[in-house]
């Protein structure tokens, strides 16, 4: 199958149009109910002085207090738990683990693209873009493309084992680029191409937590297995989970909207 990039003028126009559409979509995502609930819980912990070990109100009471559904509340709590802010103990309740201020990702220290977009913006864009691309790629990718992805995943494991996180981040970027390429959607690929430096920088961020670096390789392997099975839904789900987990490893509370 052909995957040549379109001409520069057409690529730019398509990229601008699709970027506008995705921006409109992301504008709604950023105000999703679980995100509102997450920030409200964060505010509750800070303003009411909950310290480590402090018990939050029951999930039923929290949902009523915040005016959100139990499903939205559970998703918000799950993200806070992944960040280590709270501990959810079945049958006992929800307890504060760390009252430390929770980063939201608007301006991560040292982020060189603050004038264009925050890390949170980029992770949300990647969630929308790359999840869909993975679903498409499961149907369209060739045997050679699958082999190249397998080689990439194997190489990433070697670099992570040696502690070369710069090389691992470049392989991370290449893994996602190859999936976009295999999807056959030139408009989506043009967004990555036009903003390659920003995407690559976002893929360096999760490696700030060296003890969790291998999670990236494990998640890539899960995406790869779904692609190898030609399981479109599983590939999309695995990619969504990977992007959300990468954001969490960065310290960014990433909440996706519930499916309707």
TrEMBL record:
<keyword id="KW-0804">Transcription</keyword>
<dbReference type="GO" id="GO:0003700">
    <property type="term" value="F:DNA-binding transcription factor activity"/>
</dbReference>
<dbReference type="Pfam" id="PF07729">
    <property type="entry name" value="FCD"/>
</dbReference>
<dbReference type="InterPro" id="IPR000524">
    <property type="entry name" value="Tscrpt_reg_HTH_GntR"/>
</dbReference>
<keyword id="KW-0670">Pyruvate</keyword>
<feature type="domain" description="HTH gntR-type">
    <location>
        <begin position="31"/>
        <end position="99"/>
    </location>
</feature>
<dbReference type="InterPro" id="IPR011711">
    <property type="entry name" value="GntR_C"/>
</dbReference>
<protein>
    <submittedName>
        <fullName>GntR family transcriptional regulator, transcriptional repressor for pyruvate dehydrogenase complex</fullName>
    </submittedName>
</protein>
<keyword id="KW-0238">DNA-binding</keyword>
<dbReference type="InterPro" id="IPR008920">
    <property type="entry name" value="TF_FadR/GntR_C"/>
</dbReference>
<dbReference type="InterPro" id="IPR036390">
    <property type="entry name" value="WH_DNA-bd_sf"/>
</dbReference>
<dbReference type="InterPro" id="IPR036388">
    <property type="entry name" value="WH-like_DNA-bd_sf"/>
</dbReference>
<dbReference type="GO" id="GO:0003677">
    <property type="term" value="F:DNA binding"/>
</dbReference>
<dbReference type="Pfam" id="PF00392">
    <property type="entry name" value="GntR"/>
</dbReference>
<keyword id="KW-0805">Transcription regulation</keyword>
